[in-house]
Model the fold of this input.
Amino acid sequence: MNCTMSERFHLNTPLLESVSMSKQLGTTVYLKMENSQPSGSFKIRGIGHFCQQLARQSRGVVCSSGGNAGMAAAFVARKMGLPATVVVPTSTSQLVVRRLQDQGATVRIVGKVWDDANAEALRLAETEELTFVPPFDHPLLWEGHASLIVEAAASLGPGVKPGAVLLSVGGGGLLCGVIHGLKDVGWMDVPIIAMETVGADCFNAAIKAGKVVTLVDITSEATCLGAKTVCQRAFEYSQSSELTIISELVTDQEALHAIQMFLDEERVLVEMACGAALAAVYSGLIPRLQNQGRLPTPLGPLLVIVCGGSSINMEQLSSLKQKLRS
Ligand code: PLV
Done:
């Protein structure tokens, strides 16, 4: 084992002010650039912390993933000198499979959506005595993800508090981690705008149903948001009177438009999962929520979690444009 107890795997990412988004919304917009993490997304925060705590004596790790949790697990395992197996569904792009292999992971492709891959990963953990690394549903992941809010608070400096936090929801791990972080810095009263795409909307569906529900299928191109069931804790938070969580949906077309806008304006390419959050800015959702009285007017600074993602390159972008042309 070639790492020390205190080693951490994630970086302290930049907090950038977006001039163009600020102009569009009439409030300062700050981008927490999690796309610049070594694994390409915020996932490395939680997964790094999880593996430090639970995988030190392990024979190896196995992670079920839409892609980005796997990228984080593969990166962390390589640094810890452990073998990593990542189980992904067929909906995961070839691009990500190759990137996982480049990180040194053994990749298995099982089932149509993440839930199927997860069942296989759990089976492998059992039969091959590997440490199972969950992509979103574990308190250690949330504890790890919380650091991004603590960092953002330090970057903003004392006296600056966001008017709202904007993020994407897949299985709800990022949401739980951000709430953890908001508690840590005393920002529990800051509203959270929780974005999903239509067809990968398990959190929104749970809120509508008043209980955790399982989607029949994932039909969105934002496959990294494609867990059929949101984690119980995320749903519980949505019911809490101490928190304001606004759950909203965008179409795949809006998410795609957002990643193209973000590329043009900020010169950064992110995947559809992240586009879901960015679309809240570019599609006019924020002023709509203000008009409905669900967000205050004027709104304090908006903190956008740019969650990143590895499932994108120019070819993938072109093929998404083809597919989603309506
Ligand atoms: N992706 C998970 C779950 O997929 C994964 O295995 O990688 N933004 C990006 C770029 C992501 O990759 C994910 C999750 C999210 C946002 C949402 O995070 P969550 O799942 O913690 O809500 C099925």
